[in-house]
Amino acid sequence: MTDYRAGQVEAVLDLRGWSAPIGGQDDLAALWTQLEPTLYGRPLRGGAVHSWDAEPGTVRLEILRVAPGVPVLAPDTRVDLVAVREPARLVHRCAACDRQGRSGYGVFRCRGCSDDGRPDLVCVDHAVLLDGALTPSCPDHHPRCQECGDHADFWCAGTGCRTRRSWCGRHRTSHPQDPDTDYCPGCYRLAFPVCEEGGCASVGTVTCDWADHAGRPCGRQACTRHARRWQVFGAERVGLGLCRAHSAVVGLPADRLLHQICVGATRKPGVRMPSLQAFGHNLRNCGHRELAVDYRAIRGVLDGLRGRVGPAMERATAGWDRELGELRGRAAEGEQILLALQQLLLRQDPRWGAEIAAGLRLQEFKAARTGGPGGGRPALLWVHLPADLQGRFIGPQGSRIRSYSEQLGVDIRLADGNRRGRR
Ligand SMILES: [Zn+2]
Ligand SMILES: [Zn+2]
Ligand SMILES: [Zn+2]
Ligand SMILES: [Zn+2]
Ligand SMILES: [Zn+2]
Ligand SMILES: [Zn+2]
What are the extents of the domains in the chain? Predict the structure, then answer.
């Protein structure tokens, strides 16, 4: 070992390129013992720098001052190391680098390491970052695929995993439009279900809402081409989805139809329980023409469903009662207009007026509507009339029914068997 004190050469040892830790004087002496013979024969002159490359790094010797008569470094040359330059001490040391005898700056924290109670910092090079979420780990804690246990590649963005479960590349499917969002097989099926129709590869975006006896929806999914939207909540609201098996609603018993609509209304966000008239509209479209305008009877059917639908239905009953009162008032108004029509017939049609007047029966009166979506419309008077009298009541090219309508200020329509305004 070189005598530091009575040195013939003063030099600085530069360890900044040497990544092995130097713990103290013993480490330093051991390093010098390895280094010194490699420098024998090198010229000694102030300002010269000699370097030694080895694993792990480079050690440099900067010559500061040389005593006269010492041209080269020889085994008997006494070198005085006046300073040792060391790498800045890393406070944030990468644990993975440390395990490899290197030093790296830890910028991430590994959850697995901290859970194990060991140093948890990871450098940029050692950090394992999967697609889909910034959840770093060290190489030892590389997340595993939920399915096969391989090293995982991504965090699933689906509702079942919420970027907390990791999967490998073989179990990855990307969002059809967004390649940066990935799903595991289960979450993908949930987010993009395949249409129930055999041979159709489209996404089943429509879920069948048809409820069983306990109110559980059918749940089959079909694409917009193979599913049906049953527009029971008006044209502006999304109706009930129906799969192929449940799409035939025409002709079903009224109580089953109303049960479906009520259950659907309680489940669909932003949908209120329909009015009696809205139920009537749906019943008419499903073939229940008589019941469709008998609001008291509709109310009766709804009462029969009360135990099966739940509290939303209880809350709706007050509204239905109020509506029934208004409808009754309107029916009375309709009867008044019908009376006026019968009087017109008696006066203006001496030949058939009496017979037609006797055959007329009120189906429904609807007051005029102003504004609103689709604009206003005049008041409507729907009447029943035996088929053999309809042609005479209507008149050539509809002239008579049009004349009565103008005189009474309502649009008169035949409830059945009529070309104009058939329901
Ligand atoms: Zn590292
Ligand atoms: Zn770790
Ligand atoms: Zn998932
Ligand atoms: Zn896998
Ligand atoms: Zn389809
Ligand atoms: Zn269904």
Answer: 9-85, 95-188, 206-309, 326-414
**Residue 200: nearest ligand to its CA?**
5
pLDDT at residue 77 is higher than 90: no
Query: Rounded to the nearest whole angstrom, what is the distance from the C-alpha of residue 288 to the centroid of ligand 6?
Result: 22
CATH architecture classification, 326-414: 2-Layer Sandwich (3.30)
Q: Is pLDDT of 204 > 80?
A: yes
Read off the pTM.
0.54
**What residues sit around ligand 1, an ion, with C-beta below 5 angstroms?**
94, 96-97, 104, 123, 126
Task: Give the Å distance between the CA of 242 and the centre of ligand 6.
Answer: 5
CATH topology of domain 9-85: Vcp-like ATPase; Chain A, domain 2 (3.10.330)
Residue 95, pLDDT above cutoff 80: yes
Q: Quick one: pLDDT band at residue 4, thresholds 50, 70, 90?
A: very low
Burial class (CB in 10 A: 0-12, 13-18, 19+), 308: middle
Residue 288 one-letter amino acid:
H
CB atoms within 10 A of CB 195: 22
Q: How many angstroms separate the alpha carbon of residue 232 from the centre of ligand 1?
A: 62
Least distant ligand from the CA of 159: 3
